Structures are given as structure tokens and as C-alpha cells.
Amino acid sequence: MQEHNLVLNLHGETPEVAVLKAEAAFVPTLQKLHATFPKLRIVLEHVSTREGIEAVRKCGPTVAATITAHHLWSTTENAEQDAHSFCKPIAKTLEDRIALLQAAVDGSGKFFFGSDSAPHPIQSKERAGGAAGCFTSPWVTQLVIDALKYAVDQGWISNHKITQKALEGFLSTYGRKFYEIFDPNESEKPRLRLERSNETIPNSTVSTDGTIEVVPFRRGENVVSLSWIN
Where is 15: in which H helix or E strand? Predict the structure, then answer.
């Protein structure tokens, strides 16, 4: 993969380790891979811990990580209390959540957005041993923006960190740069407008034929509205 300039995407957890420690236990494996193949581009997908964030920071520029919208909002308690907040890797502690929020706007380019959205039918989620995954895709940009705003309100992030450059980098440009996707017409592309209105995430969404119902992450919560600027 290194020779052919391919990207290695990893779900970084060590099997047979307690779920809350599985990602931290994987860090030595990530470090060994990077040391052995220093030019191999590696993405630690849906990073969920402070240890994972710190490990990616310590690696060279060929190692990055994605962060999901739902991990910016969740801790273990959310998954325990609501089947539709249960995901893998499972959300961890408040300390871990804060580390993810801070990494999302640190400007390093090593952390970028990945939705990992999973629209499991309601019956797959609300049963014993329910499916892991959060349905976020229609509202991912808004969920990220509101999570960062909440972090500022809580004093976890300084307001000056939330810049247009930081937001565009996390949601768009950092990932494309890492994957070496370049667009010569980038400056001509449409932009997003986000504004406060009365938009609310619905309690559920149903397929056009009425056979599948999916419950979104953070159902019933207000979110910023999104529109395109041409």
C-alpha cells in the first residue's frame, strides 16, 4: 500500500480488551505501523479517545484521524440511556469528548470530519443487542457547528478558534488534502450558509414506500439551518 500510495483506513480498537480501553490499547499498534511504514498514509477512523488524539498528533504528517458528529456530542452515558446514541467505537468520557472537540478546530490538518452515519431501521436499534450506529447524515454539518458552539459556551474551546478557515478545514479541505483530491475550480464552488431558524431534527424519518423507519441522532433537538450559496 505504501508503494502504491494507497490509504490504510483503520477502526483502531484491540479485540478482547474492555470496550472503554480498546482504542487506547490500539495506540502501540498504530505507532508500530507508522514506524515501519512512515510514508504510508493512515487514517484512524472515528477516533473516540484523548489517547487516540494524542497518538495521531505525535505521528508524522502521513497519519490522520476522522471525527464524527455524534462523538462530538456523546459520552458513554448517552449510549447507555438511548439506543439511538449507541455506536462503535462507543462514546467515552467527557474528557475524551472535549479532546475531540478541541482537535476538530486545532488547525493542524490532522483531524477531519467523517460521518460514519448508520441509518439502521428502528427495529434493529430498539432490541436486545441492538445495532451500533447513529443516523446523522442529513444534519451532520449542523450537528458539528452546534457541538462546537456548545463547547464554546461551556468554556471547553475559545471562541477565537471557531473561524471560517477552521470550519472549512475540518468539514472539507483537510480531508481532501490528505486524500490528495485537488480541484482547480475550488474557488468557484458553491458555499454553505448557516443561520438560526426554527429547524428541528425530526423524531423519525420513513422511507418513501413506508416500510423502513429510522430514528435520527439527537431527534427533537433544534439545529441551525443550512442552504447553498451559488
Answer: none
Residue that has been written with the C-alpha cell 471562541 in this structure: 159
Query: 7-43 burial, b if ≥16 CB within 10 A, otherwise e?
Result: eeebebbeeeeeebebbbbbbeebeebbeeeeebbbb
Nearest to 141 by CA among 194, 98, 177: 194
Query: Which one-letter DSSP state was computed for residue 229?
Result: E
C-alpha cell at 170: 475540518
pLDDT computed for residue 47 by the predictor: 98
Give per-residue burial for 58-68: e unless 16+ CB within 10 Å, then b: ebeebbbbbbb
User: Contact, 48 vs 89, CB < 8 A?
Assistant: yes
Task: Beginning with the edge strand found earlier in the chain, give each strand of the sheet holding 111-113 in spatial order.
Answer: 7-10, 41-44, 63-67, 111-113
One-character DSSP codes across 154-222: HTSS-GGG--HHHHHIIIIIHHHHHTT---TTGGGS-EEEEE--S-B--S-EE-TTS--EEPPTTTT-B
Q: Enumerate residue ranges in the chain where pLDDT < 70.
A: none
What is the per-residue pLDDT across 62-109, written as a single tens digit (0 to 9) for each? 999 999 999 999 999 988 899 999 999 999 999 999 999 999 999 999
List the end-to-end C-alpha distance of the chain, in Å, as a whole number: 39
Q: Which amino acid is at 218?
A: R
